[in-house]
Amino acid sequence: MMNMTPPQSICILRFSAIGDVCHAVSVVQAIQRQYPNAKITWVIGKIEAMLVGDIDNVEFIIFDKKTGLKGYSDLRKKLKNRQFDILLHMQVALRASIASLCIKATQRWGFDKTRAKEGQWLFTNHKIKPQSQPHVLDGFMAFAEAIGVPVAPPQWNIPLSTQDNLWAHSQLSHEKKNFIICPSASNAERNWSTKGYAEIANYMHDNNYQVSICGGPTDSEKQLAKDIIQIATAPINNLVGDTSLKQLLAILKHADLVLAPDTGPAHMSTTVGTPIIGLYAHSNPGRTGPYNNLNDVAEVYHQHLPNSEWGQRAKGADLMESISIAAVKNKLARFI
C-alpha cells in the first residue's frame, strides 16, 4: 500500500463479464468507504451496467464493444475534457487497453507484468503487486490496496428496487425453502448434464425445497430448461427468460441455496449472501469460484489438470460430465 494524498477523481476500467463486474463492485465500494469525497467514474459494458449501473455515487459510462470503432469514438468524446487522478485499468484484454487511451489520468494502474497479458503493461505507469495464486476478486482488490485502501473482507451493496423484491417474492415459495438452478454458462461446454440437473431437482424437492430454474432469454437456455423439466419428476418453476438482471438478483437474494456452473449468477449470489454450489471442470475454482463458497464447489478441474498453472483452462467438450450426481448431493447435504 502506498502513502498518498486522497484522490479527488478515480476512473475504473472494467467492461465485463457479469461475474468479474460483481467482483469489481466490492473494490469500488471499498474505495468509496476509504475516500468518500472522491468522484468515481466506471467505464463498463452495456449489459453489465444493467445490473450495477445504479450504485450510489458512481458515474457510469457505457462502452458498447458491439459497436466496434464507434465505441472507442464515443468514449473519447465523453471523456475528451476530463482528467483523472487515478485510472484503475482492471481488464487485460487488448480492446480494454485501447479504450484506456481515451482516459487521461496521472496514475495509470495495471496488473504486474506477469499478469498484464496482451501488452497491458504498455498502457500503464504503475503496477499492482505480484500475487501468488490469487482469486480474481483478490487480484482486483489489490488495485484498491495499491491506492491506499486497507485490506478487508469484500462487501457488496447492489441496489434492488421495491418492485424487484416484490416480484421475486411473488415467484418464490413461502411454505418451503427455495432452491435455484442456474444451469447455463456462456459457453455450453461449461454446462453440467441435463440428467444431473434433473436428478438434483428431484433430490431437493424430496428434501422439501421448491425448485426454480433461472436463466437468460436465449433459445439455448430455454431449451436446456425444457429438457431438464422434461426429465425431472419434481415440479419445477421455470423462470428462464422471464427475469431482468435485477429481477434475477432479487430471486437469488431471496433464495436459500443456488446451484450453477461457472457463470455470472454464481457470483451474483455471492453479492447478496446466498450460498452457492458451484460446478467446475474447465477453470480453477480457486481462482474463479464463488468467493464465499469455495469449499462448496463440486469440481473435477484438478482431476483433469493435476499439475496446471494457476490460470490454465482445461480443454474438452465432455469434462463437466465427470462431475458425479453423488458429489453434488454431498455438497448440498450440509445446507439441507
From TrEMBL:
One GO CC annotation: cytosol
Record flagged with keyword Transferase: yes
Gene Ontology terms: biological process: lipopolysaccharide core region biosynthetic process
Pfam family, one: Glyco_transf_9
One MF term in the entry's GO annotations: ADP-heptose-lipopolysaccharide heptosyltransferase activity
EC annotation from Swiss-Prot or TrEMBL: 2.-.-.-
Alphabetized SUPFAM superfamilies for the sequence: UDP-Glycosyltransferase/glycogen phosphorylase
Keywords associated with the record: Glycosyltransferase, Transferase
CDD domains cross-referenced by the UniProt entry: GT9_LPS_heptosyltransferase
Top-level EC class as recorded in UniProt: transferase
Protein name according to UniProt: Lipopolysaccharide core heptosyltransferase OpsX
Organism annotation: Moritella yayanosii
Classification lineage: Bacteria, Pseudomonadati, Pseudomonadota, Gammaproteobacteria, Alteromonadales
